[in-house]
From TrEMBL:
It comes from the Bacteria. The lineage of its organism: Bacteria, Bacillati, Actinomycetota, Acidimicrobiia, Acidimicrobiales. The chain crosses the membrane at residues 25-48, 78-95, 107-125, 193-214, 234-260, 281-313, 319-344, 365-387, 393-410, 422-439, 445-462. It comes from Candidatus Neomicrothrix parvicella RN1. This is Glycosyltransferase RgtA/B/C/D-like domain-containing protein. Keywords: Membrane, Transmembrane, Transmembrane helix.
Length: 464
């Protein structure tokens, strides 16, 4: 049943909670076991790290499995986060059920933005932009290197080794984006950071739109309680990778809408008379995918849910939206190539720099365990426990697509540490798993997520 707005009917809620979403004892037990297993594995990891250091090796991860250092520092500013967390715990779950759909979407963005800022403003306004001020980040290059964007593109691959480490690891898109903000008058790291976090938090309402399109509104409202409130908000406010997450989610959402509007999903035969239905959304999704590829070389892995929506269109022979999406996806690459930057040359140079850098000193086996643990911390215990839950096909396109991308990322060996930041684009889609949590458990589960995020902010000194 699709709810078009306002308060969902009580009967529908009861059916969802008592019949369609009934969790068996073994599934609940499995869900509770996963976070406990993560804690045990973390202790194993810490012992392993000590052993590596004792033998003269290094992992360059001070708060294994996370980058930074462990410490206990409850600043007075955290009181704001505590008060906001309590308010969310009391009012957000019932508001999610009562708000009209067109109010829930901006509400989700505001909640995500508010919680992200509350968690990250403990050092004041300057702390918010401090990571962007690092000499190793993109803003330093945008300010001190880019005078002519076209010349920067032409020489980017040739001069790659002269750039800071984060710039070496990505296409030129992030540097050009921040340089554009400077030209628009948004100067200063804190101003840029505020723009970036505002964009990043758009992932929350976009996820809800995708879930509503591929599953139903009831499922989207369940997810709305948790999306944007994972412990990963610690890195959302201070990393361009969170913007990549929003772009990846926007691309997947656009293709999901294209599949629905073209009749390839939910079996809407009426759309077959118009082969161009969903074409605009398909073009938008393809264009965003092409832009993402010039922001991060991991775009192909972050866009697996987008690709699955494209497969749905192809299976139902909706060739017009498929063609438009592929054409739009190729446009950024063609334009960048015309300006002097070829994506594959940049990727080749980055892989060489990666293997010549600290990655060559980091033991691969250690990070086979470290990376999944870092992701588990990032998504929080509730999302981790919800992943084994039973869900409908539309939700599996999003959650399963993210898990498939994660598996390839882990097997590639091109992510040795720092994945709490690098893998941020997977987090919004994984949060869709919370749609399987029964309504009567939502408030308690939300409390666990909020406390986890606040605890991480108090205990972890992160460079981002």
């Amino acid at each position: 049943m699709r709810v078009t707005g306002g308060t969902p009917p009580t009967g529908d809620t009861q059916v969802d909670d008592c019949e369609r979403r009934r969790w068996s004892a073994w599934r609940v037990g499995l869900g509770l076991t996963l976070p406990l297993a993560a804690v045990v594995l973390m202790w194993v990891l810490l012992a392993w790290r000590r052993n590596i250091l004792d033998e003269g090796g290094t992992v360059f991860v001070g708060a294994a499995p996370l980058m930074g250092r462990w410490r206990l520092d409850f600043k007075p500013e955290f009181v704001v986060a505590v008060v906001l967390g309590l308010a969310l715990l009391v009012w957000w779950p019932p508001l999610v059920r009562r708000l009209a759909w067109n109010r829930l979407l901006p509400g989700s963005w505001l909640v995500s933005l508010g919680w992200t800022l509350a968690i990250n403003m403990h050092g004041g306004w300057r702390r918010l932009g401090a990571p962007l001020d690092s000499r190793q980040d993109y803003l330093y290059t945008a300010r001190n290197t880019v005078t002519d964007p076209f010349d920067f593109l032409r020489t980017f691959t040739r001069e790659l080794r002269t750039y800071p480490i984060h710039v070496q690891g990505h296409p030129p898109g992030p540097v050009l984006g921040l340089e554009a903000l400077e030209r628009l008058g948004i100067s200063g790291a804190s101003g840029s950071a505020l723009v970036l976090v505002g964009i990043a938090c758009l992932a929350s309402p976009l996820v809800l739109i995708a879930v509503r399109a591929l599953v139903d509104e009831s499922e989207a409202r369940r997810v709305a309680v948790f999306v944007g409130l994972t412990p990963s908000v610690i890195w959302v406010a201070t990393s361009v990778d969170a913007v990549f997450a929003a772009v990846a989610v926007a691309s997947g959402t656009a293709l999901a809408l294209a599949a629905v509007r073209s009749g390839a999903w939910h079996g809407d035969d009426r759309a077959r008379s118009n082969p161009w239905a969903g074409g605009a959304m398909a073009m938008l999704g393809g264009l965003l995918a092409g832009l993402l590829a010039h922001g991060t070389y991991g775009a192909a892995l972050f866009l697996v849910p987008t690709a699955l929506c494209l497969v749905v269109l192809a299976r139902h022979r909706r060739w017009a939206p498929v063609g438009l999406a592929l054409f739009a996806a190729a446009l950024p690459t063609l334009l960048m190539a015309g300006a002097g930057f070829w994506l594959l040359d940049g990727l080749r140079g980055t892989v060489e720099a990666y293997h010549d850098g600290v990655a060559s000193q980091r033991p691969a086996g250690f990070f086979r365990l470290s990376n999944p643990l870092a992701l588990a911390i990032s998504i929080g215990p509730v999302v981790l426990a919800a992943l084994p839950g039973k869900r409908r096909v539309g939700a599996w396109i999003l959650v399963g697509g993210a898990l498939a991308g994660l598996a390839v990322a882990e097997m590639s060996g091109l992510s040795k540490g720092e994945v709490e930041r690098i893998w941020l684009p997977f987090v919004p889609w994984l949060t869709v798993a919370t749609g399987a949590i029964p309504l009567r458990w939502q408030r308690g589960a939300l409390g666990v997520q909020l406390v986890s995020g606040l605890a991480m902010a108090v205990m972890l000194g992160s460079p981002w």
